[in-house]
Structures are given as structure tokens and as C-alpha cells.
Amino acid sequence: MSSEKDNIDIKDKDNKKEVKERAPITTALTTDPARLAAMKAAKKRLHRRRGLKDWALFTGYLTPSLVGVMLFFFLPLIMILKTSFQKSTTNYEFVGLANYDKVINNDAFRDASWNTLTFSGIAVPLAVVLALLLAILLNSGIPAQSGFRSVLLNPMMVPVASVVLIWQVFFSYNGAANGAGLFKLFEPDKIDWLKSDYAQLVILALFLWKNLGYNMVLFLAALNNIDDEILESAQMDGAGALRRFFSIKMYFLAPTIFFVTIMSLINSFKIFREVYLLTGDHPYTNLYMLQHFMNNAFKNLEYNKLSAGAIIMCVVMIVIVGVLFYAESKFDADVEG
Amino acid sequence: MDPEVSRQRREEATKARRKVFTVMQRDLSFFEQMDESTKEEFFKKEKARSLKVRRRRKIVNNTSLTIGIIIACAVSILAIVPVFYTFLNSFMSSAEISNNYGVIFQSLSGHADQGATYLSSSPSMTLVPQRVTIEQYKNLLIMSPTYLLKFWNSIILVVPIVVGQMVISCLAAYSFARYRKKRREVLFFSYIILMLMPFQVTLVPNYMISEQLGILNTRWAIILPGIFSTFAIFLLTKYMRQIPNAYIEAAKLDGAKEWQIFTKIAVPMCSNAIFALTILLFIDYWNMVEQPLVLLTNADKQPMSVFLSQINEAEIGIAFAASALYMIPPLLIFLWGEEYLVEGISRSGVK
Hints:
The complex is a heterodimer.
Chain A: H1 2-31, H2 33-83, H3 98-104, H4 107-139, H5 145-157, H6 160-171, H7 176-179, H8 199-225, H9 228-236, H10 241-269, H11 272-279, H12 290-299, H13 303-336
Chain B: H1 3-17, H2 24-32, H3 36-89, H4 94-109, H5 135-143, H6 145-178, H7 182-196, H8 203-213, H9 220-227, H10 231-240, H11 245-253, H12 258-269, H13 271-286, H14 290-295, H15 304-309, H16 316-349
Helix pairs in contact in B: 3-16, 5-16, 6-9, 6-10, 6-13, 10-13, 13-16
């Protein structure tokens, strides 16, 4: 015992000796305040230069995109922000919020906002839930899983313009949907689907047809990513299929559900293309979307009204996306913490 | 201590640790109490019971599997029918088409009573053409070269956009992935917002800028904003951030320049994502209708998608063939690159 202690003491002494030997050099460097300051400054400069070099390098990589985005997106957005406060395209008088007032009190704008909102409100949850159900179905050990996946993903690749014709054949007054008696579900008489209160249903079908595959692939990937061991041990502990789904799978699926919701929301705002292709500039009232309003305002050269509308839409989009991203980051922190 | 006793104790302790309890003995006695006939009867009963349970489980499994397959088949058929239908109908003769669908397009264009009588008063949704001809394709490709021109218009708009956007996006995404300071993140978020904007929000701005630059009504008015679209940057940045830092550090230690890290590590490691994104971009721009409608009013330069949206009664005879032809490039790309596409999509959602 005593020998060990001695050893330590000797080591300590050695250490002290070394420190003492080194000490004069360090003190010589550190006691000189001017030199110290110079060293600090040099270090700072080096850091800044390195930071600046990094900044310059990576900004260089970003430049092509930044120039284009500035020119074609940011600058124009500022321009329309300006025009939204002006009286007209020829009269640059500042009119404050008059254009916004006009737009918000415009019946067409209100209808369009309402239609867009209701469509997204119905279509997005449906797209998420149905895609999840399909993914679970394909993941449950069905043979030829990849075959089904290809077929279901296929509509995503088909240009809408190509299938518009078929949709018209299906859903016109003399079309196949009426021929098959589908109208009996809703009304006793034949329906001209795209010009009736059920027009949104047709567009909903087209939206789901096009987007379910993409969402389903996302969910399939997430389901495959779940560790089998966790599910197995839960099964051993006596968790039934439903319990396993809601307590384990849903937990791991949550980030994907967020992502799919965001993507579906974006796509639901883009439904205008389909509606336009099917019904043209002036569709049945419940299909009149915000983008119709914009397009028609554009054609009538009402740039100021249009600018105000675009800014409102822009702000709403930023709010929605901001809330979604905030929720996602909150949730992520929850999962990781 | 007696070695025999200690051995026994050790054994018991091991059993206890392994949770093997000596229930076996009671079980044995349970069977030993029976005589041969009751034993046999008991075993027979047990066998029958387990067989029943197994059979029931098998039936439940099989039926649920069958129901699953039926549902999957039904959904698949719904998904594929429009495509299938278009292709089959494209092989009908023009006469047969107008015979079958004349009624529909009469009611669509709203002049049902302006003459033009059709043989049948209700449309017949025949899947298989009565007589397979390539008459539609002949009409489309040989008799009227305008359609070929539209097709070419589509290609010449889409290819530069996809290639340009991919190149610029790779560079920008690399920058966003490697340089993460607060102000950069704000810029990145604004890029995301731009990606999410519906086209109509940027419609007027785009129009004004094109006018200022003097490129309105030329292809550049569509190509340039397309190239600088931020969609690909968002997803590529997500992938590039997944590249382990160790790779980059190792390359740096070996004296690699930033450009070398970019071309030799970042791009190859994201090649699948790049393929997938190329496919996604291609289909997105192949599909575009709004931009050419507003920014490219010259009908000669408009792509096929706009033409297809304006097809009317007079051209119904070739509409199916035109639709089918327009579908072929994306479908071929899909068949060729499905693996990449699926992987690219999958990885974009999983963190």
C-alpha cells in the first residue's frame, strides 16, 4: 500500500517539475498584454477569414440559383406588393388597403376561397387516410406487393391532359357513371356530374386517383422502417393487432403523416389544373377555385386586384406552412426527447 | 459439504435462474394416473382440438388474405382503367369513336340540336375496338404535322427545364447542406415557401418580369422560371444533409477541395435521389398547362398538354391517339426508372 502512495507522490512531483519547467515560457507569452491582444486578434482574424472563405465558397455554389430566384420570384413578389397598394397600372397613386378591401369584399373571391378551403379540407384527410390503409393492405403480406405498388403509382405518371378525355366520358350527362347507375346513390335522375353539386366529388376522385400512389409509397417506406423486434415483443406482451397499430406503428408513422399531409396540401392547392382541363375558365360555382379568380382577373387586366389577392394568398400559405413546420419540429423534439 | 447435495442444489439454482420449474413431474403424474385407454382418448381429443384451432386460424388467415387481394385488385383496376381505356380506344377508327362518344361531346359542347345525328343515342363504353386500326395514329402523325410540332414543343420546353433545374439545384442544395448558419436557414425557409406557392401567385410577377426582359411569348418565358424553381433544391438538401459528416471530413483530410467533395462524394451519394427527382420534375413539367396558357400565347409554340385540353368535337376522332401518344414518354420513363422513383420518394419522407 505504502509503496503505491509513494509512486503517486513521485509522479506528482514529476508533474509539478514539468509544469514548473514550462511555466516561464507560458507566463512570458501571457503576461505581455499587448502581445496577448495581438494573438487574440490574429486568431479572430484567422477565424473570420476562414468563416468568410467558407461563406464565399458556399455562396458561390448558391449564386446561380440565388440570382434566378431573386430575378424571377423575390423581386416580382416585391413588385406585386407595390402594385397591390396602387390605384391602377397606369395611375400609381397610393391607395392604401383599398385593393385588399375590394378583393376581400368580392363575392367571387369569397366563393373561390371557400371552395378551395372545403376542397382541401376534404381531400387532404381522405388522401392521407386512404393511402395509409392501402399501404397497410400492401404491407400485410399480400403476394406481388411490388406489382400492386407499380400499378397504384402509375396514375402519378400519367399527364392529366391525357386522362381528361376519359374523365369526361365517365362523368358527362350521357357518360358511363350515369350508365352504370352511379347517380342512384345521390339522386333519382341522371346527373350531369361536372355541372352539379356533386362536381367536387368528381374532382376529388381525380385528385385521389392521382395522389394516392405517391402517398402510399411514402407510407410503405415508413412501415418497412419500423423495427420488427418492437412489434414482436409487443405481441409477446399480449398486444392485439389494433393495439400494436395504434400504440406502436402510429407513433413511428407520425413524421411521415406530417410529410404526407404537407405534400397533399400543396397538391390540393394545385387542383386548379385538373378543374381547368375538365371545365374551362368558368366552371360550376362549387368548382370555382382561387386560381380561377386569379386567372380571370389576369385576363381582365385587373392587376391591382390580382396583386392584392396574390399577397393575401401568399400570407395565408406562409401561415399554414409555418404552423405545420412548427408543429412538426415540436413533435420531433417530443420524439427525440 | 456433501458433494452430491451441493450438485443438486446447483442444479436447482440453475433451473430457478432459467425459470424452469419442476412442474413436469406433476404433469407426468397427471398422465401416469390414466390408464392406456383414457390416455389415448385424451390425446385424440387434444389433437382434434388443436387441428380445429389450426384450421380455423388458417381459414381466417386465408379469407383475410383473399379479401385483401380482392380489395387491392379492385383498387388497382380503378387505377389502371383510364390508362388502359385510352390506349384501347386509340385503336378504334374515327367513325367508331364518333359513333360511340358523339353523344357525350355533343352535350359537352352544348349544341346537341345543331344537326349531326349519331347512330346511337347513348354512348357505348366498349373496351375492345370492333376493328383494330391505326387510323387515328395515321391521321395524327402523317396527315396533320401540327401535332408532331406540339409534341416537339413539349420536349423542347421540358428537357432544358429539367436539366437546368437539376444542375442549379445540386449546387444550391450542396451549399444549403454544408453551410448552415442562421441567415442561410431563413433563406432556405423562404425557398420552401416559394416551392409551395401555387403558380397563380407568381403568375403576375412572372408576367411582368418576362415583359421587362422582353422574353414574353418566347419559350424562355417558361424555361427560365422553370429552371430556377426551388422544388428540387428542397428535396436534394434533405438528402445531402443525410451524408455522414465522416465522409466529408475524411475527404478533407486527404486534401480534397470543396469542388472535389461535391463532385466525388455529394453527387454520387445522391445519385438515386437525383434520378428520382429528374423523373418527378419531368412528369411535373410534361403536365404543365397554366404557364404556357399565360406566358406563351402563340399557339404554334404551345405544348401538347394545352392542345389536349382544347380538343373539341371536331377532333374527337384523333383525341384518344393524341392522349395515348402524350402518355407514352412518362410511362416509359416510369417503367425504366421505377426503382429509383420509389426509393427517391420513400427516402424523402423518412428521416
